[in-house]
Amino acid sequence: MYIGLDLGTSGLRALLADEGGAIIATADAAYSVSTPHPGWSEQDPSDWVTACKTVMAALKAAHPVEFSALRGIGLSGHMHGATLVDAGGQVLRPCILWNDSRSAAQAAMLDQTANVRNLSGNIVFPGFTAPKLTWVEENEPEIFARVAKVLLPKDYLRYWLTGDYVGDMSDSAGTSWMDVGKREWSPELLEAGHMRLDQMPRLVEGSESSGTVRAQLRSDWGLAGPVTVAGGGGDNAVAACGVGCFRDGDGFVSLGTSGVLLAAKNSFAPAPETAVHTFCHAVPDTWYQMGVILAATDCLNWLSRILGRTPAELAGTMKAEISGPSRTMFLPYLSGERTPHNDSQIRGSFVGLDIATSPEDLTQAVMEGVSFALRDNLDALKTTGTNLSRILAIGGGAKSRFWLETLATTLDLPLDLPEKGDFGAALGAARLAIAADTNADLSMIMTTPKVAETVEPRSDLVDRYAETHARYRALYPNLKAALT
Fold first, then answer.
1. Which of 4, 251, 286, 395 has the smallest number of Cβ neighbours within 10 A?
2. 326 with 207, same domain?
3. What was the pLDDT predicted at 421?
4. pTM for the structure as a whole
5. Which residues are in the Carbohydrate kinase FGGY N-terminal domain (predicted)?
6. Domain count, the chain
7. Among this protein's residues, is 235 annotated catalytic?
8. Which residues of the chain fall short of a pLDDT of 70?
9. CATH label of the domain that carries residue 456
10. Binding site membership: which residues?
């Protein structure tokens, strides 16, 4: 048996699977995010440990026989977080999360440093790890002086599981300290951020073993034999493993809290000027490129709070078929934006509101705005030479037929919908655990899900959505000027 642990921003999901990847059970535990100042987003790493104890106890209680046969654990986690520990392994301050924007000035400084983009393959975004440490150096020098190791969130959980400081290629590629082409820490990038190699964890591939579960935990959980802990990876790379997206040209779109359009690559070909991320995949000799929007279903969550109706209720007001774009436009920059703008200061806006505008009109505009932002991502990916002919659609937003048809028509790409099941990062993490324990052929482990249905673009409306997207894209510089 194998367990995949997906350390999300709002909670931990555990998935128990057999050696063939069939899902036996899942368990979840929630925790909170702290926002002590505007633009700050932090988490207490001890909450991750508590959540892990909770989900493991739940799986053991519900499936004691299967749990006792545990052979491996895989890890997935939200990227870019800075968990700082001292020489004794004690946490020095709350973890600074991926959606924390306090280090925008430090990110701009590092991004302008010679050779940083070339080696890291990416713009230094404010959410990345390196600028967070520069912020700590400038604002909390007494803590910075005590930093013995910097761990990404899931790697702190690994430290609790194994007692070892280990990271993986895909997650570490989002720090701005890694030579992403060579898949190793870069002395030059570390020096640019005033960091040292000894402050970094040892690196392994996501499908390799990073160590074994500590004896005390095995005893607590009633496990007699060794339990391998796989390298794991950043959440999007591991989600790609969950849907079998690791061959050149494979791709998926995720309508989650944030929005992701990801394409697997068999070579390292960065284009940082596009604001497209180029990271190591969670499997060897593979990379991926992705465009990221910071708010996708989060935009619908925001609208639901404003209107006092649940997201499901709002989505339920939309017809099954689209009939053309709304006259009202929504720019989904509620938390700033990454691809293609790299703008932490931009904010969202409705354009074209009318006295007759209804909640249904606002809902349609939100779904279209997110779709147009993902079209921006597709256009950015195309400039890097990435061409997708069809993609899988996953995430909570994929439950809305109206949103799917809007997105398919906006992207002018068929969207394949997997059969019902859990195909997210927790399954990908379990698959990486299987790979690390058995050394089986990855193509046999990381299979693609069966397609239940394909949502085709509406050929009669593709041109209209393209024209509306062009008007949407032209709004950004005017909104930027209005907010400056």
1. 395
2. no
3. 65
4. 0.90
5. 1-242
6. 2
7. yes
8. 421-423
9. 3.30.420.40
10. 79-80
